[in-house]
Structure formats: structure tokens, C-alpha cells
């Protein structure tokens, strides 16, 4: 009897153990994660999301970047109620692939579901900064920036309102491009411009943040004044600029206001360091002349390189070689003439020396300039505040007296009826050597 009971008990125990084992394995069953995807992308992160797996204990997230062949477990989440995860510290403008599984823990055992389908995503491109906005052409602004890394292109917004409520958009579809010209703008108006880069992924565009906005004004075109025959003409000339203290800009403001022009004999180094000033002078119909590269040699010390180096700088900025030259200190040698002739430049001395460089006195500069007569060349320098003060008075006073302002090249043609000759130095509209 006892033996029978033992047999029955053992059988029952086996049945119970088998049932428990079967139950435990059934309890470890876990479903594959559904609706796995990306809900947000950033510069260095990707936010993943999925549907809750009710029978799961938690989830495993795997990652593979573009250059990898294997997935790496990057996160185990121990809460089945959690349905999102933000993957951080990713590289900007990079592709990543993710997979997810659910897992179940039961009495020390653990079972993992099959991996989900891969989800691909890309981090956002870095934002670009606008390096400059220039107004070199009529009714146009040129926007410049540095090239992105892996972006697909750029979007430019420009608006008259600083809040961009009236913004228009231009799209640049090549990431290698680093400039864009916005055309058909209103002259005299100030535009606000900002830039962002974008990456295309699965038919959609993902954008960086906008750059800081830059304001730029589209200047009005300067009207060219016709020269009236019989009225006196003079040539205002300025040496040594552009300056960095504002004198050159103030002088240009006067010329623009009264729609007159002048000739600027520029120092190459100064032009190289202030190209926008030179471009503005050209836009105002002024003449850009060569005054050697560094203004540290005089007379026989001036070399051909001193002259040709300055010419190269001017051509790079304006697109044209200079056709006029003035010797430093007015000391001209045959070697200087030869180089000027070789480069196609005529030379210019002066009739009226205002001595602004010595007196630094606006009243004295005005008095000297107003003593000029028809056909004279007036010498000043666009590097002194006092000269700018003087020009603000000289131009309107001489206009009132009936004078017309021309460039030195125009002066020679008006007074002689011929084009200036390369290698010849002119002291006035009619006097040369």
C-alpha cells in the first residue's frame, strides 16, 4: 500500500513539475515590438518611440552607424511601460540605424523577442553662419557663408521686417555652394537675411536652426551727371587711403550726396584690408589709382614691384587694372614712368596742394581747395578726419560757384580732346611732362 502511495505521489509530483515548467515557458513568451520609429531628430540626438508590449518586462535597443556592419546593444530598459528613449551624443549630419526587442524575465529565466524591422534616421545638419552680405550689383545682395559638412543644401530667408513676417525664401541645392545672389531687391531698402542648412532623408527635408540675421542695405544707383561744356571742371584727388577711422567713408558719403566723383590714389595694402571701401568708390563712379603697394618707398627707391603689386590688388577687388598712377610724395623717376607705361597707366601730379597732410586743419584745407581754377587737380588725403570735415564744405561751395567734378582721366580728355597717354605725367588738365 505504501509503495503504491509513493508511486502515485511521484507521478503527481512529475505532473505538477511538468505543468509548472510548461507554464514557465509559456510565461516567457514575449511579442515582437510594434510601431517602432523616430519621433524627433536633433543635432546630436534621435528620440525613438514604440508601442507598449504588455507581456514584456522591458526592452533592448540596438544601434548601428553608417560605417558599421554589426548592431550594438546601447540600452536596456527595465520598464515595459516606457515607450520612448532619447539616444544622445550622436554625430551631427550622420546616418544611424536602430532596432528594438522586448524581453521577459520569469523565475531567473529571460527570453528576448525577435528584433524589430530596422529604423533609419539622420541627425540634423549644423547651422551655418553668414560671413558677409555685400551689395556689388544693382538691386542685388550677395550672401556668403562657409560650406557645410554633410548637408544637402541651404535655405535663405530675406525680409524687410526684422521679425521675418514678410520673408521670402531662396533655396540653394548644392552643399558645395558658399554664396548666393538675391536679385530684384528694392533700392534704398534694408533687408534682414538669415540662413539654415538642410539634409534630405526619405523624401523629407530636415533643417538646422537659423543663423543670426544680418541686415544689409541695397544702395540706390548713383546717377551719372553729364558734363556741361563751357562750365569749369576740377579733379578732386585723394591719396593714401582707404583709412580705418571713418574719414574715407565720410568723404564718399559727401560724393554720393551731391552725385559727384573723384580720383582715389590708393595704397595697395590699405585696399587689400578694406576692399568694400574700394568697391563703393567704383560704384560711385570714382576712379581708383595706384599709389604703390605700401607707400614706404619714394623716388628712386620705388621698384617696379611696388607698383605692380598695388595694381594686382586693385584688379582683384575691382576686376580691372588701374589706368592712373601717382608717385609717393610726388617724386617721379624715369623708372617709375617706364613701369607705368608698361602697365598702361598715365601719371598725375597736382596743381593745388591743400597741405591737409601737414596742417590737419579743415579751414585751411577749405581755403586752399577753393582757390582752384578751371582745369586744376586738387590734392588731398582720405585718411584724416579734418579732411573729411573740409570736403563736407568744399563740394557744395564749389558746386555753387559752378564747378563740375571729374576724374583725372576725364579732366585730360575734356581739356585736350585726347585720351591720357601711358607713361606721361599730368600736372593739370593742360600741363604735362
CATH superfamily of the largest domain: Glycoside hydrolase/deacetylase
Query: In total, how many domains does the architecture comprise?
Result: 3
| Helix content bin | 25-40%
Helical/strand content category:
alpha/beta
Computed Rg: 39 Å
Care to describe what's here?
The protein has 433 residues and is an alpha/beta fold. It folds into three domains: 30-122, Immunoglobulins (Immunoglobulin-like); 130-217, Immunoglobulins (Immunoglobulin-like); 233-426, TIM Barrel (Alpha-Beta Barrel). The chain contains ten helices and 25 strands. It has helices at residues 2-27, 247-258, 268-273, 275-283, 304-318, 334-343, 356-359, 362-369, 385-400, 408-416; strands at residues 37-41, 46-49, 58-65, 72-77, 84-87, 95-106, 109-112, 119-122, 130-134, 141-145, 153-159, 168-172, 179-182, 190-201, 204-207, 214-217, 233-239, 263-266, 287-290, 324-325, 346-348, 352-353, 377-381, 404-405, 425-426. Strands 17, 18, 19, 22, 23 and 24 form a six-stranded parallel beta sheet that branches. Strands 3, 4, 6, 7 and 8 form a five-stranded antiparallel beta sheet that branches. Strands 11, 12, 14, 15 and 16 form a five-stranded antiparallel beta sheet that branches. β6 (95-106) and β7 (109-112) form a beta hairpin. The model is unreliable at 15-25 (pLDDT under 50).
Amino acid at each position: 500500500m505504501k509503495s503504491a502511495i509513493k508511486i502515485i505521489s511521484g507521478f503527481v509530483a512529475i505532473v505538477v513539475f511538468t505543468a509548472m515548467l510548461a507554464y514557465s515557458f509559456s510565461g516567457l513568451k514575449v511579442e515582437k515590438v510594434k510601431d517602432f520609429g523616430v519621433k524627433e531628430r536633433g543635432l546630436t540626438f534621435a528620440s525613438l518611440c514604440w508601442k507598449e508590449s504588455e507581456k514584456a518586462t522591458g526592452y533592448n535597443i540596438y544601434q548601428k552607424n553608417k560605417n558599421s556592419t554589426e548592431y550594438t546593444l546601447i540600452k536596456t530598459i527595465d520598464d515595459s511601460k516606457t515607450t520612448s528613449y532619447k539616444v544622445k551624443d550622436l554625430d551631427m549630419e550622420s546616418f544611424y540605424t536602430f532596432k528594438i526587442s522586448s524581453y521577459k524575465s520569469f523565475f531567473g529565466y529571460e527570453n528576448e523577442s525577435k528584433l524589430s524591422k530596422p529604423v533609419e534616421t539622420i541627425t540634423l545638419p549644423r547651422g551655418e553662419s553668414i560671413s558677409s552680405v555685400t551689395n556689388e550689383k544693382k538691386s542685388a545682395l550677395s550672401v556668403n557663408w562657409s560650406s557645410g559638412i554633410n548637408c544637402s543644401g541651404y535655405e535663405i530667408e530675406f525680409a524687410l521686417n526684422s521679425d521675418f513676417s514678410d520673408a521670402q525664401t531662396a533655396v540653394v541645392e548644392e552643399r558645395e555652394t558658399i554664396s548666393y545672389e538675391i536679385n530684384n531687391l528694392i533700392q534704398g531698402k534694408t533687408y534682414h537675411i538669415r540662413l539654415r542648412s538642410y539634409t534630405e532623408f526619405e523624401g523629407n527635408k530636415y533643417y538646422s536652426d537659423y543663423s543670426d540675421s544680418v541686415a544689409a542695405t541695397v544702395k540706390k544707383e548713383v546717377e551719372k551727371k553729364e558734363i556741361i561744356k563751357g562750365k569749369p571742371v576740377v579733379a578732386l584727388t585723394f591719396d593714401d587711403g582707404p583709412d580705418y577711422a571713418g574719414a574715407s567713408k565720410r568723404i564718399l558719403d559727401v560724393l554720393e550726396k551731391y552725385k559727384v566723383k573723384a580720383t582715389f590714389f590708393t595704397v595697395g595694402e590699405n585696399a587689400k584690408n578694406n576692399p568694400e571701401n574700394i568697391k563703393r568708390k567704383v560704384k560711385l563712379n570714382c576712379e581708383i589709382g595706384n599709389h604703390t603697394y605700401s607707400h614706404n618707398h619714394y623716388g628712386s627707391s620705388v621698384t617696379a614691384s611696388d607698383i605692380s603689386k598695388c595694381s594686382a590688388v586693385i584688379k582683384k577687388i575691382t576686376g580691372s587694372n588701374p589706368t592712373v598712377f601717382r608717385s609717393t610724395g610726388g617724386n617721379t623717376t624715369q623708372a617709375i614712368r617706364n613701369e607705368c607705361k608698361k602697365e598702361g597707366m598715365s601719371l598725375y601730379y597736382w596743381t593745388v596742394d591743400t597741405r591737409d597732410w601737414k596742417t590737419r586743419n579743415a579751414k585751411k584745407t577749405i581755403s586752399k581747395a577753393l582757390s582752384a581754377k578751371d582745369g586744376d587737380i586738387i590734392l588731398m588725403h582720405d585718411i584724416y578726419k579734418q579732411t573729411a570735415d573740409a570736403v563736407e564744405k568744399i563740394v557744395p561751395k564749389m558746386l555753387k560757384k559752378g564747378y563740375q567734378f571729374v576724374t583725372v582721366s576725364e579732366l585730360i580728355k575734356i581739356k585736350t580732346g585726347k585720351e591720357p597717354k601711358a607713361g606721361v605725367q599730368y600736372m593739370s588738365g593742360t600741363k604735362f611732362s
